[in-house]
Amino acid sequence: MGSLSPVQLLAELENLVAAPPPDLLAETDLRAKLYQASKRAALALEQPTEVAVRLLLAHPVESTIVNIALRLELFSKLADAEYPPLSLASLVESTGADVELLKRILSVVAAFGAVKVGAGSYTHSPSYKTLADPAFGNANPMDPKNTAVQRAFGMADAYLIGILLQKRAAGQAFGRLMSTWGEVNALLQHLYPVENLVEGFDAEISKVMFVDVGSGYGQKAIALKQEFPELLGRIAVQDPAMSIEQAPTVPGIESQAHDFFTEQPINHAKVYYIRQCLHNWPDDACIQFLRHLGDALKPGYSKLLIYKQVMPERGASEWSPYRM
Fold first, then answer.
1. N or C: which end of the chain has fewer CB within 10 A?
2. Helix (H, G, I), strand (E, B) or coil at 134
3. What domains are defined for the chain?
4. Coil, strand, or helix at residue 25?
């Protein structure tokens, strides 16, 4: 019999995952060999960015989220359910956890395969059935001044940015990590037609064409300028001083230290761009941030572009490629 095509192989693997044959699971040696082969296949297909995600996000996040799920007794509640699967509402009632926090936790543990997701319901994954631990009350983090960061640095009643501005070494390391993280991924010109951005640019309204808010050292704006050197108007990148201090000098790119919870200093630019910022803050802080930008927009002229990743209800991966 000829070898399977990649499409056929994918179909066979999906069938195997959906319903592993009982005799396969009983064959210890064969199961172990298949497990190791699948890991090698995953490594062979892994892209550099996915390696970074696995090492920097997936592994530490998985252990953290599993620990939280243990304290909530999620695994034991799912495994011991008399009438599985369980709905989100029933798990909220039995755990006493905040509904938004629990939904987020379940989404992540489902992405790691620790629970199985149905239509608005959840059931246990056999591999995690034995995990259990006493739980205590939990709530979705809502106060940006009361998080693990404040405890780690021993600085109460301070925002993350304020702490990092005082802890210069940590702040600069954070800025480098965030900038490197997005160095070559999700470039604006690959997500949005740049010609639509510059159409109708009017230097009489504002000499600034593009403002990258929360830009790191400006790597996205720099890539945009390099690919489209003919872009009219000025390009500005804005971030706290700890990142802006590390920004390279690039002709046509202006770096500006800015706290985006204060008034936006550039008014009536053609485009304001926010990338991967809003998820760091609760709703009221995001509203404050966006209101300042709204005040800077010129109706009928300025555009506000927001780049975020969206986790689907089902079938999420550790780094879901669903973007808006």
1. N
2. coil
3. 6-128 (1.10.10.10), 188-307 (3.40.50.150)
4. helix
Interval 74-125: pLDDT, tens: 888 887 776 778 899 999 999 999 999 999 899 888 888 878 887 778 888 7
DSSP letter string, 156-174 = -S--HHHHHHHSHHHHHHH
| 192: pLDDT strictly greater than 60 | yes
Helix (H) or strand (E) holding 122: strand 121-124
**CA nearest to 237, candidates 202, 210, 264:** 210
Q: Give the pLDDT confidence score for residue 134 in this predicted structure.
A: 42
How many Å apart are CA 230 and CA 245, to the nearest integer? 27
| 3-class secondary-structure state, position 270 | coil
Instruction: State the amino acid at position 62 in one-letter form.
Output: E
pTM of the model: 0.60
Residue 300 banded pLDDT, cuts 50, 70, 90: very high
CB distance 66 to 114 below 8 Å: yes
* DSSP labels, 171-231: HHHHHHHHHHHTSSSS-GGGTS-HHHHHTT--TTT-SEEEEEET-TTTHHHHHHHHH-TT-
Our answer to whether residue 268 is catalytic in this structure is: no
Q: Quick check: 323 and 307 in contact, CB under 8 A?
A: yes
Task: Kindly tell me if the per-residue pLDDT of 324 is higher than 50.
Answer: no
Distance CA 226, CA 232 (A): 13
d(CA 39, CA 44): 9
Specify the DSSP class assigned to residue 307.
E
pLDDT in tens, 239-264: 888 778 878 888 889 999 999 889 99
Distance CA 250, CA 316 (A): 38
